[in-house]
Design the sequence.
């Protein structure tokens, strides 16, 4: 009954002040109810009562948002920032003006901020005639009616201002986190959780809470699912409602829950408390906000982040992103200094690779939120000596995080925001410097001949010649450094494409493609090879036509096809599939025509000396012919006839004749369920090679077996398109006759 009553009052409008205060008292008491459903509805009701009134979006200021640090100043905790007025304009609504419709707000809609976009604003407040700041509420007193919030009532205030009561409410929230984790960890519990989510009170609570989650943040372990946005926003509104006097009530509880050695659920609640207080502090007087930052900096906040366990790293990242979303960069200088100090400590103390990787992960949310407004943070992170050293000598998880930070920096600088080219240019220069060093460490140019992977192909008659590319250096140390640098390059590619900013890779597309293919062709590390193959496919999906890079990419693949490594030649096919599709949209004025380059490269791979490359090229050739129509089909048929006519008198070698047969097989694959008018002639030409040596004989038998299998359902109609001689030929090719004495 209590859940039903609270849920009904949550939906119905409460206009009378006495009714509002009674509802606030009920919701406050519900925070410590023994029933989990009552606690959740109580938190939702209290958050709605504390929600500030909606207001129209402010007009953009003509001035650009300030940078994170002033030029030439030291990155000290809140001390290196430019001086602020006593009270900066701030709105608790920020990007969340409408809980249901806006969700996380326009900050994550994908649009670039304009040069004059103000990240923290509120409707203008009236000031005294002398220009002084409006008087703040006396310590310990509530905001008067008519302020940002209406009062909750004396009895609700008395409960919420008790330290013991807030600590108990946080303890019950820890219990709710634990129950949710246990329910999702078991099959039966997961089913019960899905059933509970469909209950009316849960549906109502989900409606009034935040609309959607953060954009994806790279995390280690469990991800950021433990961070509850609804709880964090409740604490934010409580701290904004009561102002600085609530700091000594909430902060000790938050620091104790997030202290080193805490359990996963306690850490989640501690981060929710800290995130809410930090965001609400923007509405406090500047001196109180500074005291909060100083207390956090000296109260073990940095140590708690450094000691964060693996399963809570994603939760900490969500907290950092929540605390820094759409904030004035000057308000985040202390946080940037704390994170950089943790990064320096993890790198200088020779701690475990996990500690160094975790410190890099904590910098990523702040870098993602600041974007082009944080050039100093990007420069301090990417130009750090430990970051450059980790490219070739660090642990693999550290190198992957370096690549992720590099991707975030490249995204912030591409494209530069209108009216603010200088900050973006600084970030782009820092990212370009690190990326150039990474590509140089990949060792893709000027390597000596005779790598370990090239020997088997040389023995098998590979077509190595001018422009041959070797995969790795011969020296063991140089080889390890090259593999380490390629991990960073692949992580950068994945980060840029996954976050929807592939245009940031265009200036380095050819070099990254070369590095990805060389990594994919390496047979020493299967996981790294698979990652390289995936990144090569991602790079082939860049906007190449708009950037004029389709022809250079095809030329690069043509050069790499001369490599003595058949592994590298085979790895050209996955990205080539996407370039084939893209080539059909190339304008006729593009020179040289990409269709000609694609066809020449496909036919070269179809007669490759290595059997695996030829067989992998056959379905790609079939797709090419299907896309480019009858003209491409006729050209392929003429090419195959020309090769197969040379089989006598010491003509074409076996590999080329096998390629010609595979070309005919690609034509047969174009019609798996019908028999067009041109297909019987192709079948006749294939049948003439049924008694050729292997692997030609096996290829012909496989083609006819597949043809009979795919046409079996409609064979009565299909056989009418064939003559009796062709039917007999088809039967003989599928199962050759046997002779008995």
Sequence:
């Amino acid at each position: 009954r209590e859940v039903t009553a609270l849920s009904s009052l949550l939906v119905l409008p409460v206009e009378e002040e006495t009714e509002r205060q009674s509802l606030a008292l009920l919701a406050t008491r519900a925070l410590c109810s023994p029933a989990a459903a009552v606690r959740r509805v109580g938190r939702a009701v209290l958050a709605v009562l504390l929600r500030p009134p909606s207001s129209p979006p402010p007009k953009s200021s003509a001035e650009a948002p300030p940078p994170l640090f002033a030029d030439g100043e030291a990155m000290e905790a809140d001390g290196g920032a430019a001086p602020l007025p006593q009270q900066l304009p701030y709105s608790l609504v920020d990007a969340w003006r409408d809980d249901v419709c806006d969700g996380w707000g326009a900050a994550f809609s994908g649009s670039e901020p304009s040069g004059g976009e103000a990240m923290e604003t509120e409707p203008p407040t009236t000031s005294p005639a002398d220009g002084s700041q409006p008087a703040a509420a006396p310590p310990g007193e509530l905001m008067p009616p008519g302020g940002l919030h209406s009062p909750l009532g004396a009895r609700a205030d008395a409960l919420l201002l008790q330290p013991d009561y807030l600590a108990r409410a946080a303890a019950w929230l820890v219990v709710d986190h634990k129950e949710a984790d246990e329910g999702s960890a078991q099959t039966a519990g997961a089913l019960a959780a899905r059933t509970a989510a469909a209950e009316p009170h849960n549906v109502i609570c989900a409606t009034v809470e935040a609309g959607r989650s953060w954009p994806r943040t790279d995390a280690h372990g469990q991800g950021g699912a433990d961070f509850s946005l609804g709880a964090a926003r409740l604490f934010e509104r409580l701290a904004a409602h009561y102002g600085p006097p609530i700091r000594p009530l909430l902060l000790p509880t938050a620091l104790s829950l997030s202290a080193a050695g805490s359990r996963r659920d306690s850490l989640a609640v501690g981060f929710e408390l800290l995130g809410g207080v930090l965001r609400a502090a923007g509405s406090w007087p500047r001196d109180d906000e500074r005291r909060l930052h100083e207390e956090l900096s000296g109260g073990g906040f940095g140590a708690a982040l450094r000691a964060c366990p693996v399963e809570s790293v994603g939760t900490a990242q969500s907290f950092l992103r929540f605390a820094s979303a759409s904030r004035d960069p000057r308000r985040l200088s202390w946080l940037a200094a704390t994170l950089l100090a943790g990064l320096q400590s993890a790198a200088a103390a020779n701690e475990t690779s996990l500690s160094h990787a975790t410190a890099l992960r904590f910098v990523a949310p702040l870098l993602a939120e600041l974007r082009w407004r944080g050039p100093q943070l990007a420069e301090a992170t990417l130009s750090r000596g430990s970051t450059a050293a980790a490219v070739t000598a660090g642990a693999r998880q550290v190198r992957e995080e370096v690549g992720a930070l590099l991707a975030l920096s490249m995204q912030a600088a591409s494209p530069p925001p209108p009216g603010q080219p200088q900050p973006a240019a600084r970030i782009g220069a820092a990212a370009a410097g690190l990326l150039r060093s990474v590509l140089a460490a990949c060792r893709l140019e000027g390597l000596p001949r005779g790598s370990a992977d090239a020997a088997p192909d040389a023995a098998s008659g590979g077509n190595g010649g001018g422009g041959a590319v070797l995969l790795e250096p011969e020296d063991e140390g140089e080889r390890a450094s090259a593999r380490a640098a390629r991990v960073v390059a692949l992580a950068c590619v994945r980060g840029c494409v996954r976050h929807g900013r592939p245009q940031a890779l265009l200036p380095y597309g050819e070099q990254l493609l070369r590095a990805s293919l060389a990594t994919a062709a390496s047979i020493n590390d299967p996981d790294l090879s698979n990652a390289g193959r995936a990144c090569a496919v991602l790079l082939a999906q860049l906007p190449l036509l708009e950037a004029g890079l389709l022809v250079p990419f095809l030329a690069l693949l043509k050069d790499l096809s001369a490599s003595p490594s058949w592994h590298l030649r085979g790895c050209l096919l996955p990205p080539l599939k996407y370039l084939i599709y893209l080539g059909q949209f190339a304008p006729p004025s593009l020179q040289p025509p990409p269709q000609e380059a694609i066809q020449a490269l496909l036919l070269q791979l179809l007669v490759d000396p290595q059997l695996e490359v030829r067989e992998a090229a056959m379905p790609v050739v079939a797709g090419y012919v299907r896309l480019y129509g009858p003209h491409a089909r006729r050209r392929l048929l003429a090419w195959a006839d020309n090769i197969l006519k040379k089989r006598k008198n010491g003509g074409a070698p076996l590999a080329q004749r096998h390629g010609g047969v595979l070309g005919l097989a690609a034509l047969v694959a174009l019609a798996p369920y019908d028999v067009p008018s041109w297909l019987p002639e192709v079948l006749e030409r294939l049948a003439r090679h049924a008694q050729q040596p292997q692997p030609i004989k096996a290829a012909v038998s496989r083609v006819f077996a597949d043809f009979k299998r795919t046409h079996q359902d409609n064979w009565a109609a299909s056989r009418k398109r064939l003559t009796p001689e062709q039917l007999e030929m088809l039967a003989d090719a599928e199962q050759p006759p046997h002779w008995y004495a």
Notes: The chain has a mean pLDDT of 77. The longest helix spans residues 611-644.
